[in-house]
Amino acid sequence: MKLPRLGTVSIIALTTALTLSACVPAPVGDGTGLSGTIIGAGASSQQAAQEAWVRGFQLANVQATIEYDPIGSGGGRDTFIGGGAVFAASDRAFSVEEIAEEDFVSCVPGTGILEIPAYISPIAIIFNVEGVDALNLDAATIAGIFTREIDQWDDAAIADQNPTVDLPDQRITAVHRADDSGTTANFTGYLSDTAPQVWDAGAIEKWPLEFGGEAALQTSGVVDAVTNGTGTIGYADASRAGQLGTVSVKVGDEYVPYSPEAAAAIVDVSPFGEGRGPTDFAVEIDRDSTEAGVYPVVLISYLIACNEYVSKDRVDVIRGYLEYVISPEGQQAAAASAGSAPISPRLFDQASAAVAAIR
């Protein structure tokens, strides 16, 4: 696939075309459908899913080209606001205040935006400690590690929850995102909701400098830093956890490992946000739920588009691509490539009506 064109917002210095996934089944279609090129940008957590979606959509629409730049959630939102991309991917939705204040260049003023939680995935707490593959940790301990209140792997707070694990006398290196990140916002949202006595910085996209730790750019940078370090721990979209050790988090009286099913379960018990438009399906995650089998460290990544575009050029491709992404075929393709959880039938019905109305 050719490299994406430069957007009108200066944050895009260099774009990266996605390598198409070979494992996605072709959707039904004869390949003679829509044509034209559209540009999207945003969350690096969606990269594997976007590869699957692009391949599946283009197999049915061979004259269409989808160019996606995984520059991060904040960059994607800024690029969409400025008109450098016709859709954005973000690990957090725009706030109600941002929607009211921003002038979305590509959108007809007053028509609002569409936000679909199209990618649901657990955030894995990953670590690299020799001889240890899995740990049980409660929220307060996780927060203590990332605020550096707990800085040794054999600290009693960790050891007491893992009595059968041989923990080393080794310093903990906590790795966080250096860039503005929706993954960070979701991870800190979990800490803020479940361990506010330890994590008092709130749900934020930019890591607080006072907590220190090692910084790394984007999802791949965090995974590389944890993989290549010693005694490291970090957080990343679960599709990128690989062979690293992972944490089961305490929910009620049980420790729950990450899984697509557990991520979907927490979304099902969570409401939509208040004060939003009819095509804005932002979810307020109930991270301190004690329901059995839910995994609260979850990332809901959104696809964001205009309800009505200023330019009618390529609107059919935009609508068609989003229709494929949320379809059962598209969601299955993402699940196969990225380990994400398919959206629920209720959300599919609501989102489908909104996407069909794009003009």
Automatic annotation (TrEMBL):
Pfam family membership, one: PBP_like_2
Report a single Gene Ontology molecular function: phosphate ion binding
Q: Which InterPro entries match?
A: ABC_phos-bd_PstS, PBP_domain, Phosphate-bind_PstS
Domain PBP positions: 35-329
Q: Keywords, A to Z? A: Phosphate transport, Signal, Transport
Q: Name one GO biological process term.
A: phosphate ion transmembrane transport
Q: Which GO terms describe its cellular component?
A: ATP-binding cassette (ABC) transporter complex
Lineage: superkingdom = Bacteria
What residue stretch is flagged as signal peptide?
1-22
Q: Output the SUPFAM superfamilies linked to this UniProt entry.
A: Periplasmic binding protein-like II (SSF53850)
Hey, which family's this protein in?
Answer: Belongs to the PstS family.
Q: Name the chain's protein.
A: Phosphate-binding protein
- Protein source organism: Rhodoglobus vestalii
